[in-house]
Amino acid sequence: MWLLAVAILACLPQVLSKFYVILLGSILIYGLFAMSFNIQFGYTGLLSFGHAGLFAAGAYAAAYVLKHMPGSGISMYVALIFALGLSLALSAVIGAVCVRLSGWVFAMVTLAFGQVIYTILYKWRDVTGGDDGLYGIAVPKLILPGGMIDLSAGNNHYYLILLVVAVSVAVMRMVVRSPFGNTIQAIRDNQTRAQFIGLNVWNYKLGSFVLSGVFAGLAGALFSPFKGIASPELANWAFSANPVIMSLIGGTGFFVGPLVGALVYRLLEHFIALYTSYWMLCFGIVLIASVLSFRSGITPYLARGAARFYEAAFGKEAPE
Amino acid sequence: MSLLEIRGVKYSIDGFMAVAGVDLSVARGELAAIIGPNGAGKTTLFNLVSGFLTPDSGAIYFKGEKITGLPPYKIVRKGICRAFQLVNIFHNMTVLQNVRMGVLADRGITANLFRDTEGLSEVNEEAERILEAMGLSPYKDQVASTVPHGFQKSLEIGIALSHKADLLLLDEPTSGMNPEETQAFMRLMEGVFGGGGVSVIIVEHDMDLVFNLARRVLVMCEGKIVADGKPEQVREDELVRRIYLGA
User: What is the pLDDT of residue A320?
Assistant: First the structure.
């Protein structure tokens, strides 16, 4: 099933125009961002409004590396590693302060940390480019065992994103099914009970926060080279609403929910914007309607629809 | 050396002395019941022993080690496990996942990121054994909040049993259970107790259960232990009859 999804995503560029390939690439990046967010939101019960700060940290880290070592075949690797390291360090520090807080206090303090990152990006002009951001990022070349490939050629950049997102999703899937994944869900369900089976719940919340932050940073590191720019808005609290909305649309209770949410969100945004410049208004109405009518997100409805289609088409029961 | 030693423990809530100086020692392998009217401080005493509350004064020792003021998770790791009076389970997880969570925690493998929990056959078998003993096997794949209340109560105890604890604190384990479930619970307790080594303290209102099961009965009233002895002694105690048994 998973391989099938990756195979379809790998084939799509053959039939889509360049424009839609770029849209699809950005959907995958947003999907990874939203899924990383859902590890702490859906699985651990922590609602963070500062998640964009970690995404932006990854985006700037990658942009900084690519700007300073253009044309090198290893620059993209260095960029990804630097982005992972920076988002790991930041989320460890922010998480250590925040995980003992709960509910709205947690949400507000994470929001404050996000704004701190935003302010740093905005003010530290020498490194971050201030309000211009880091732009003119050279599309990197990549050394692979078989030789050098040029990411600007064909759909190569899209395939790099697909590869990184697919591997990340596989890792996240492994984590949520592991004893650690069970534990964070138990803590979300009943923190008191979790303590009384001998769990130091704060350590697990911190683990979840860091894991989530690292994948957000990775999503950011894919974002800036793909868009060619890293701007301070990526860290702004308004940008943090993206993964929240995507997770809610797709359904926080489903592993791929946020990815589905990202797909729906971006497609709606794109198609509504074709017809009206008031797309935010239309989108708001659609969002309210979808949250009210699909309480647990649209993923289970889509899955049921897909299963029915499968049964009709092949005359046998659909696999999970 | 006694397993649990409580010395002069006091705790007050807003000026009300909930526990007004309790001294108690429980030996390894003992099965004791605490009875007493509502508000006598029984649950508060459990909260103090399990680390949910910290005593205002006095000290609690477990296996000779002072545990006063330790957080609950550390006390659990030292070997004290409790079940709650009100159902306190992982309500969005299945019945099996609930007990399995306890087994994972007991084995200290909750930080493992790389194994699929479904594939940990020893852990799953252990959880299934506990469910079997609790009569919960038919419900194992149901979400915990959707099973009948009595079974949630059994599950609550099942989670507590998933630990290799030396001391089990059970707060009104049979409230909300029907007579058959209570019978099953008693057989289970005989089993746990029969294994030897495990001490159980149980707060209970069901007098039949208390006098049939416990080898020692403690009576609490107004935050103090007012009687302590074999069931037949306590039953005959004049003070106890007056304040509690209503005879």
Answer: 44
Residues of A in contact with B76 (CB under 8 A): 195-198
Test mutation, B73, B93, B97, B153, chain A, max A CBs within 10 A:
B73
DSSP sequence for B15-82: TEEEEEEEEEEE-TT-EEEEE--TTSSHHHHHHHHTTSS--SEEEEEETTEE-TT--HHHHHHHTEEE
Q: Are the C-beta atoms of residues B80 and B49 closer than 8 Å to each other?
A: yes
* Contacts B89 to A, Cβ<8 Å: 190, 193
Q: What are the domain boundaries of chain A? A: 2-236
In a mutagenesis test of the A interface, which of B52, B113, B118 is the best target, namely the one with the most A β-carbons within 10 Å?
B113
CA geometry: angle B5, B8, B11, nearest 5 deg: 110
Give the best-scoring range by mean pLDDT among A239-248, A305-314, B52-61: B52-61
Q: What is the per-residue pLDDT for A182?
A: 93
- A190 Cβ under 8 Å from any chain B Cβ: yes
The interface pTM score, or ipTM, of the predicted complex is 0.86
Per-residue pLDDT, averaged over B152-170, amounts to 88
Share of chain A above pLDDT 90, in %: 42
For residue A171, what is the nearest residue in chain B, using CA coordinates? Answer: B114
Question: What is the rounded average pLDDT of the residues B196-206?
Answer: 83
Give B72's contacts in chain A (Cβ within 8 Å): 195-196
Place B196 in a pLDDT band, splitting at 50, 70 and 90: low
Would an 8 Å CB–CB cutoff place A319 in contact with chain B?
A: no
Q: What is the 3-state secondary structure (H, E, C) of A247-273?
A: HHHHCCCCCCHHHHHHHHHHHHHHHHH
Amino acid of residue B244 = Y
| Domains assigned to chain B | 28-52+71-245 (3.40.50.300)
The answer, yes or no, to whether residue B247 has pLDDT greater than 50, is no
The 3-state secondary structure of B227-239, one letter per residue? EEECHHHHHHCHH
